[in-house]
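Model it.
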Amino acid sequence: MSDVHDWNHHETMNALRASQELVSIGLEAVQDFLRSLHGREYTSEFVRLVHGFWIQHLCQDVVYASLSATQEAKRRLTDVIVPISKPHYPNAGSAGVSRVDLARRLFVEGRDVQDLMLSCVGKSQQLMPKFRHLKSDLLSTLSANSTRVWIAAPYLRQSVAEQIRIAVQSRQLIRWEEPDPVEVSPDLMNSRIRQSAYASINGNSRGDVLRALVPLTIPVELSEALPMIEDRTQSLRRGTTRLIYSANAHHYDACFKVAAAQMLESGARLLVHQHGGGYGIDEQHPGEMFDRSVSHRFYTWGWTEQGSGSLTKPLPSAPRGKRREPDSHYLLVAAENTREFFRFQSFCMPTHSEKCISESLSFLSEVNESHVIQLRSAPTLPFPVARIGRLMCRIQLDQSKKSALELASRAKLVIHNYLGTSWLETLAMNIPTVCFYDPAMYRPRDEAQTFIDALARVGVIHYSGKEAAKFVNSLRGEPSTWWKSAEVQEAREAFVARYANFSDNWLEAWQEEFESLLAE
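Modeled.
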């Protein structure tokens, strides 16, 4: 189905606000469903942490579907496949109908439950790979038994040797431990209770469709398997732990979320650290909204927010990598080729993805013949190379297994066709960087605009692929001369200090912050 909306920035932000208004309804629906499954009450605090990120995505699916549902392709709803776990990318690679299409059908058709069939197919939830399991066990055993801080999924890019050194250095205070996933079988899915809960919902409003979708789509690990996960994660819940820190385990790791939620009920505090781009920069950022709603303290990569007090504060993270001796090629880092709705965030929607592609094609068509452009895109959602026409420049498709950051560390110039995480990393590493995007699709928040404008004035940011290509051509193959100029470095350093604050002394800063919190 073609999208009837352009999803410009204004439309996207309004839809995000509308979806946030549904979150409380979704969390209440989860509580009701868990009560029907297990005959017990889960507190609103427990459900907000364990199910909140999943519900936030589901609310966005509902709003997106409500704004794109039409009478065309009307099909009777009969078969629904219930997922075992929450996928990192909600609608990609899942069997059966996507949640957005499911919501569309509910808006268009209403609910006829007579022939509804629920199934849960596929492999059981896989356990942690053996190497990761051994590494996690090693890091955990290096810590003292009386540690008061538990860290999981800290979003650090460290070698195993460096991780061991860090664990030894901080062993009296910090336990570094990744939960081992609990194996969840599809056989746990309770079709009878799910169908009954679905059948009890009447009405066709967004709230009604959301309530109906909860029993149809809630992952088994977040519902039927909850008691088993609670039992299996007891070893994680040490009585001495007073602070729990993570960058994104509270998004996707069911075992972490369950263990943390139970520890919070016993008085521990959850600390969440920014783990990617957009935070503090986007006008509204869904991940930031959730992180700040569940954490006792939210740490940023340098930015602050007026009125938030000590609840939101800067805390440096580890450097992302090191600049290497550059070779002769330029690197184009392309956004994921998103063909299905992900969430209401710039560059995470099909229309935005298509705009990134079209501007990239424009950029490539304008770059002159003296340049070699290495193209890096996501392996699972790659750039549509077949759409590249005749070019003056030469294109090299990256076939290596190296990360984009590894490739960037040796590039003469890095070009980004979106504003995500990678442009923050290359700016922080002081790699010559050029970005382009369509301002109709994306606009930063007011506090970030001054810094974005400064980068635009010196040539880092451009508002079309064609404009960026003309600037790249003007560098005449020597971007370092432009990059090292005083005005570029002044704009870069001001931006990095606020939005990409990585430091070699990050561990000392973390320990000082944790000790301060424990002393309160």
